[in-house]
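Propose amino acids for all 324 sites.
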């Protein structure tokens, strides 16, 4: 059990990641390859990934290099999931390479004590070795994560929208109480089903919540309590690929296929860039579709800093309701 202790200052500093964290998705997807637990929920991804990696140099490297340093175990090195990855894969990998050698050495020794580190792991104190590892992480991401990014982004966007609605309707108590069946909120302590028993005192630093597509049932946190506190937790919803259900014919006839898909994707709210990723179109094209939907009274748009959030009006929601 992980017990996360909040102060009043921490409650004011709870935030939810705005997009999937690519390095956490890499780590959690590697965990999915190391166990049959929950495999049914990722059956199509697992089958495609096994076919991609089988008999390939990348598959050999994943088995010999990535799995040993990102094990599905009680400990894995924190420097492989830096906070900079919140700004994208490039920033995250740069942070991995730039990790001070002393910290790398400390975390590799911890890995060796807890789960056993591979014989080559101490070489990661050398920048060249970290650059090679970063290149392998990128290759793995391009091969088995990137082909599924649209669905990953859509599910994380939906999760963020749900958590935002929870916070607006019931406050932070409601948000923290509804994160996952593995997480229970008993103010001022968040109780998390965890691989070990420990307490994490936020001490005014707040908590960054990171919804993850590949995290399955058991949330994950950093081992080093001096680092910025975060909790990676599984998104709600079905991860299985299902045959695309064609939109209602009358809705397509009224709006066109792409715009009907846009309306459906805005049911939980989305930014312009999130909508563009979901539809597989450019941001200007997504902007055009939202403009048409807004002019028709189906969508309302609100600007916040550099992003625009689109949500349905009552009329737009009514169009999506099943006909009797």
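Proposal:
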């Amino acid at each position: 059990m992980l017990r996360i202790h909040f102060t009043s200052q921490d409650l004011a500093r709870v935030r939810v990641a705005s997009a999937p964290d690519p390095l956490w998705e890499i780590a959690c997807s590697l965990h999915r390859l190391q166990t049959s637990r929950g495999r049914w929920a990722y059956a199509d991804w697992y089958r495609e990934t096994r076919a991609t990696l089988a008999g390939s140099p990348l598959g050999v490297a994943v088995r010999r290099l990535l799995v040993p340093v990102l094990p599905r175990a009680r400990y894995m090195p924190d420097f492989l999931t830096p906070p900079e990855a919140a700004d994208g894969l490039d920033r995250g990998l740069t942070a991995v390479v730039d990790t001070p050698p002393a910290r790398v050495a400390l975390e590799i020794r911890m890995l060796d004590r807890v789960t056993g580190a591979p014989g080559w792991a101490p070489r990661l104190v050398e920048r060249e070795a970290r650059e090679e590892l970063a290149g392998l992480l990128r290759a793995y991401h391009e091969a088995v994560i990137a082909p599924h990014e649209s669905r990953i982004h859509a599910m994380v966007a939906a999760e963020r929208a749900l958590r935002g609605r929870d916070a607006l309707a019931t406050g932070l108590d409601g948000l923290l109480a509804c994160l996952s069946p593995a997480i229970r909120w008993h103010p001022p302590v968040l109780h998390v089903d965890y691989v070990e028993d420990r307490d994490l005192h936020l001490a005014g630093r707040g908590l960054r919540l990171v919804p993850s597509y590949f995290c399955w049932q058991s949330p994950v946190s950093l081992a080093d309590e001096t680092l910025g506190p975060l909790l990676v937790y599984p998104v709600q919803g079905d991860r299985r690929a299902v045959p695309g259900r064609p939109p209602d014919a009358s809705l397509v006839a009224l709006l066109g296929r792409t715009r009907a898909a846009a309306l459906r994707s805005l049911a939980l709210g989305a930014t312009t860039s999130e909508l563009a990723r979901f539809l597989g179109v450019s941001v200007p094209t997504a902007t055009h579709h939202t403009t048409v939907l807004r002019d028709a009274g189906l969508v309302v748009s609100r600007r916040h800093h550099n992003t625009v959030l689109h949500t349905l009006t009552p009329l737009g929601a009514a169009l999506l309701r099943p006909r009797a």
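The chain has a mean pLDDT of 90. Residues 44 and 241 are 6 Å apart (CA to CA).
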